[in-house]
Amino acid sequence: SGRAGTALTLSASPDLKLPPGWKLCRARGRLPYAMKAIALAIRQRPSEIVVFHLSLMPVAFIAARLASARVTLVAYGWEITFSRRNVDRWCGYRADRIVAISRRTALEVERLFSDKRSRRFGAVQILHPTWDHRNSTADRARRGVAREAFGFKQDEVVMLTVGRMDAFERCKGHDRVLDVLPALLASNLNLRYLIVGQGEDQGRLVERAEALGVADRVTFAGFVENLADCFAVCDLYVMPSTQEGFGIVFLEALGSGRPVVAGGIDGSIEAVCWGELGFLCDPLDPTSVEETIRRAIDALDGPDLRVDAAYLRSQVELHFGSDAFDESLAQLFGRCDRHHDSTSDTFDDHRIEGDDGIPGVPY
Questions:
Q1: Which of these ranges, 19-23, 59-63, 183-187, 220-224, has the smallest mean pLDDT?
Q2: What SS3 class is residue 5?
């Protein structure tokens, strides 16, 4: 869009790509981070400060006051659900705008900031995220090579889950897939389950797989730098989560042309367009999880559009691709300046980032 700014982060991927003209600043430690954010605000005098975590709102609030800037808080989901510090909430009430990545997250924002008389911001706005296209591939030739690297046979049906295994946030659904794996294996002996990610809960999940008698069919791959190979190797992406704010990983899977099984009670439902692009289950019902996975496997190579690679790629690009994201972003930020004057369509952006993602639906 041609607008320049500075991104301040506690940590960031080494290959993080910023728009032309943008600068990236890092700060090690929360106190140096806060001091650098405030110094940047005083020096650069941005008209807009965008903060990507509720716990950073106190810093953003001080910086905005010193720079006479607007504050936009981007809400992802889990940090809104679990962050309950009074100071964070007090500062959150004073955000000029809150943008949620899904309707589910917007509901969590409404619950947290329920006193509308105390809110500086108005209605919560929705901005569905896009994704890193480098994690998605349409190259079928990679499949064979990737399978050999993971030690999978070419005729095996491989299910994949990507996500951190956090002992305090067991919401991704690893347990739910493991629990139904014995029943699925009883009718499909060529089934394999690939789990990619790290976390302190991995040991417990390994023990669970052993107790269920499926350890030889489950692969814990740990951290994998090239996620494109993970999507290339699998036949089905499965993540029956319960507390996803949205689930960008679903977009990466769909962008790779891989069918998806998702939970129907959190933000995942929006990532799969309310069931148009994926198979929805009730993640709290083991029977529903098993039957939905079975239905998705049975549909592979059939006429169902939810397993049609070209259709999935085209639709996820249409709804969540970079063009759609840029258009939505322009609608949100395209007409604001330091003095809240709607006659101007330019601003300097200063982003503060953290160190870190429904009833009535037929299953």
A1: 19-23
A2: strand
Tell me if 150 sits within 8 A of 233, measured CB to CB: yes
How far is C-alpha 326 from the geometric centre of its chain's CA atoms?
A: 17
- Residue 144 CA, chain-centre distance (Å), reads 28
Q: How far apart are CA 136 and CA 31, in angstroms?
A: 37
pLDDT tens, position by position, 303-338:
999 999 999 999 999 999 999 998 998 888 764 433
Of the candidates 19, 30, 271, the residue with the CA atom closest to the CA atom of residue 9: 30
Tracing tokens 């004073």 back to the chain, one arrives at 94
**Per-residue pLDDT tens over the stretch 95-117:** 999 999 999 999 999 999 999 99
The Cα–Cα gap between 247 and 271 comes to 6
CA distance 113 to 296: 39
Strands (DSSP E) contained in the chain are: 5-9, 23-26, 48-51, 70-75, 97-100, 125-126, 157-162, 191-196, 218-222, 236-239, 260-263, 279-281, 349-352
Burial-class residue 318 by CB neighbours within 10 Å (0-12, 13-18, 19+).
Answer: exposed
* Mean pLDDT, rounded, for 220-229: 92
Residue 2 has pLDDT above 70, yes or no: no
Residues 332, 333, 335: CA angle, nearest 5 degrees: 105
Please give the backbone phi and psi of residue 333, each rounded to the nearest 5 degrees, phi first: -115, 0
In DSSP terms, 222 is beta-bridged to 196
